[in-house]
Design brief:
globular, single chain, 4 helices, 5-stranded antiparallel beta sheet, about 30% helix, binds magnesium ion, alpha+beta, Creatine Amidinohydrolase
């Protein structure tokens, strides 16, 4: 069963989405050469605490961080640590919050200074793929329409889609039904209904799609060592336009 949110539940999802969107964007401004992923994790933990929330990742199956921080060929689930960011790196931060019992989940890829133009293009395409997927997240469509739109956008540019890790429903829990692959057939899968809240998150590799998990048990890396990109939004399905809950309504940075 895919949970349907109504009324106050949707308001709760809006509040958590806005809170984590602001934290994501404030964290992005802290990304610069010399900063460690641990520094960013501590900053995130503080920001999340200050708004009265907690990280849904911290302690999840023993995950030690408050955010996931993945650099270059690391795809997702990187553990924050002593690694210093270098000029030319690309950092993927996956950030989430539980606020008032509702989870908001979002991810961003941030260049550290100027990055290789091919990586810059990879990031832009991943954002476009996310937008194409979100566009399909509307009542009456099938989940496969979302997946297929993402996959087509990625493959058309000559990149590859990570298949082992997928998006997901989100709400009271970080991971609810359905699973949302970034590949699939249009018109397949469950029917989308107003009130579903989905974390849509393309993970796109510059090179081949194969990934593996490092010995730390968490960090996912590309097998070919080429860079990967990741963007994510929590989205509310409505009868009309999809509502991006983790898109800031008031984008002024404080
Ligand atoms: Mg997610």
């Amino acid at each position: 069963m895919i949970p349907i949110k109504k009324g106050e539940e949707i308001e709760g999802m809006r509040r958590s989405g806005q809170a984590i969107a602001e934290i994501r964007d404030r964290l992005a401004t802290l990304v610069k050469p010399g900063v460690t992923t641990k520094d960013l994790d501590e900053a995130a933990a503080k920001m999340i605490r200050e708004v009265g929330g907690k990280s849904p990742f911290h302690g999840y199956r023993g995950f030690p961080g408050h955010i996931c921080a993945s650099v270059n060929e690391e795809v997702v689930h990187g553990i924050p640590g002593k690694r210093k960011l270098l000029y030319g790196d690309v950092l993927k931060m996956d950030v989430g919050i539980v606020l008032g019992g509702w989870v908001g989940d979002t991810a961003i890829s941030v260049p550290v200074g100027a990055i290789a133009s091919e990586t810059e293009a990879l990031l832009a395409r991943t954002q476009l793929a996310l937008a194409k997927g979100i566009e399909q997240a509307r009542a009456g469509n099938r989940l496969g329409d979302v997946s297929a739109a993402i996959e087509r956008c990625v493959l058309d540019a000559g990149y590859s889609v990570v298949k082992e890790f997928v998006g997901h429903g989100v709400g009271r829990s970080l991971h609810e039904e359905p699973q949302i692959p970034n590949y699939g057939r249009p018109g397949s899968g469950p029917l989308l209904k107003a009130g579903m809240t989905l974390a849509i998150e393309p993970m796109v590799n510059l090179g081949k799609e194969a990934v593996r998990i490092l010995k730390d048990g968490w960090t996912v890396v590309t097998v070919d060592g080429k860079p990967s990109s990741h963007f994510e939004h929590t989205v509310l399905v409505t009868e009309d336009e999809p509502e991006i809950l983790t898109c800031r309504k008031n984008p002024t940075l404080s």
